[in-house]
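Exam revision sheet. Question 4 asks you to relate a sequence to its structure. Input first:
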Amino acid sequence: MNKIDFKKVLPHLLVILGFIVVALLYFSPVLSGKRIYQNDIKLYEGMAKQHRDFREATGEETFWTNSAFGGMPTYQMGAYFPYDFMDSLDRAIRFLPRPADYLFLYFISFYVLMLVMRVPWKLATVGALAFGLSTYLIIIIGVGHNSKVHAIGYFPLVLSGILLTFQKRYLWGFLLTAIAMGLEIQANHYQMTYYLGLLCIIIGIAFLIDAVKRKELPHFFKSVGLLVIAVILGVATNASTILATAEYAKTSVRGEQLLKDELAMDAPDDGLDYDYITQWSYGKLESLNLIAPKFMGTGTAADLGRESAFAKKLKELNVLPNEINYYAQGTRLYWGEQPFVEAPPYLGVTVFVLALLGLLLINGRLRWWLLAGMLFSLILSWGKNADGITRFFVEYVPLYNKFRAVTSIQVLLELLLPIAAIIGLHRFFNDRLAASERTKKLFIAIGTVAGLLVILYLFSGSLFNLRSTAEAQMAVQQPEILDAIKEDRLTILKSDVLRSLLFVLMVGVVLWLSIKEKFSHNLTIITIGALIVFDLVGVDRRSVNEDNFITERQYQQNFQATEIDKQIMEDESYFRVIDLARGFSNSHTSYYFNSLNGYSAVQPRRMDDLYYKQIAPGNIEVLNMYNVKYILQETEQGMALNENPDANGPAWFVNEIQYVRDYTAEFAALEKVDTKNTVLLRETYRDVLGNFQPQRDSTAVVQVQDVQPNKIVYQVENSKDGFIVFAENYYENGWIATIDGVESEIYSVNYALRGLKVPAGTHEIVMSFEPQVVQTGGSIMLGSSILLLLLIVGGVFYTFKSSKAEEQTL
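Answer key, structure tokens:
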């Protein structure tokens, strides 16, 4: 039996320990019990409060919440699916306190990739730091894009499995790909996974061309076949998530547009609108932020201080000192064309120049898929600023129009540049490469980047106007103020360009000393690693630092009930709330009440339509039919609470059915209909209901007996055959209605609500959410997880037997 060589294993164990230490040190406030304040997570917790409370109280899982958007599935809100063993594995990997767990994931995942690419552990460690500390990856931790962080963290692991397979290490390549893909899907950010898939296609094309040249097509197709099966297996371990999300997506804003003609507002029949997709488009010139972080300013606002040109100009204009401080702290220094940015997505000029050196030193398919992936990522991140290719992808590439904020595809750059940089360093240290060749390539890389930075330092003031198109009015009305702001923008631009230039020169000096054998390989690696860390962390800390952390008590104050909340809480009946003061996209009211508000990138399509085209313009009838009893509005005196006396109640009998042609006609009819008496149904239901017209006697009543997020029980009474409208969102899959235990069809009415035909008499109606997709997905997850486990055990056994057989033949 082989014994483990601890001398070989020890460095890796020490590296892992080092990653733990670095992750905890970077986010050191977690060690004192503090937590990072992430605004997106705060909003998410408002959405998730109801189903979390239900889980804690009952030990069961509800896949529906009534707290947001009038009701929606919880599939994208942290639902716990049965037999989700990938979730357990993921939690084991991310064992550190948040957000240190995500930083550790970045490190360990990239480290594995470097080892698979046969990079020595010392350089692999530097690569992991370069990837994990990349500024954009830190920024998204700070703002709370946790699922995005999570998915990106597994990118390198997925690539590791793919590359292992193409290295003809089929067994472990297959298993690692299946596991990594399972973890990637489990992270639940399909936009990031989609972008990774596009990169894998680029890699596949590079390997195919190389296989044709080498006449190794059988190996290529064998590898691809294994990888396809591995991906299917990994996806299958997340079947419930995939199937449920696919089902719900059809009814969300990512799905089919129901309204046509003028009501559709020129929206596409399916997917997102082009302008919405490209609202955040990276500027071509803005790409220089990747190597000079403040090239286009900082985030939307910055504290310029009293010594800035802006502050001095205000002083000249006799502005009061306290007002100068106020304006100086909130001045917009960003002059790009995006609506706003949290911070520049700096790649690290040290990593960039090493990546350029790497592309000069790397040959073959690796160079081409790295370079193609980088250009692909950069160009598509320009969005509407590269209109032709972006429109092609939106219109013709499957699923591309399902995702917004195209700037996010730059995550591929965050992955590929460190790979090129570290592989380049590895080649640079290759003794078979002549010193003259290394010197030549080094001078080209350093000279190119340094030359660009020198030009930017000397001529930015004359080359660029330093203002955005949004400031055209200011240029006319307050030219002196704008000139002062531009002067400050130029100052910080030159400051960061000079900073980047110094780092480039230091990298050049260190590598030149290595060529001249003044620095040993180890000293060179340590020094380069230190430069990369100082470069990245110095910019990272501008955006995410100790100031982002608060105590648990401070965090809970975000959810502290206001006086208005307390006033509403006194009402123990079943109703809804809408918050028009904070706006549609907020989850404060969702934390406490059943609300029409919410915060999600995948809100229900019908509620989105209703809010922007009915509620916002002032159609109170829509609020009535949703049983909105309380309306929060902004007044001159502050936020005010208004009670709606005309709310229809949780459910009610109507006395008339009005048939309409289609969704568009149904939607338009909401502007005229009296929802208390008339229900709107599409013509497609006429074949089912025939000539039925409901009748409602004077004593007809609907009472709510019990309410849970996934189950509502009603007691109804009517002496005639009737039709009840329920103030609940219609969702085709999962909701089951029974009348005295007998299942009855739920109708889609009033564009977004549920309706039920009810026979005369007294009845108990139960509406329960029992999604078949979760049950089906659970069975698939259980079977695929068992299969994967058996394959892993078999792989270990096979490897052990093979190594033992090799021992016996020696």
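Marking note for examiners. Residues 40 and 333 are 24 Å apart (CA to CA).
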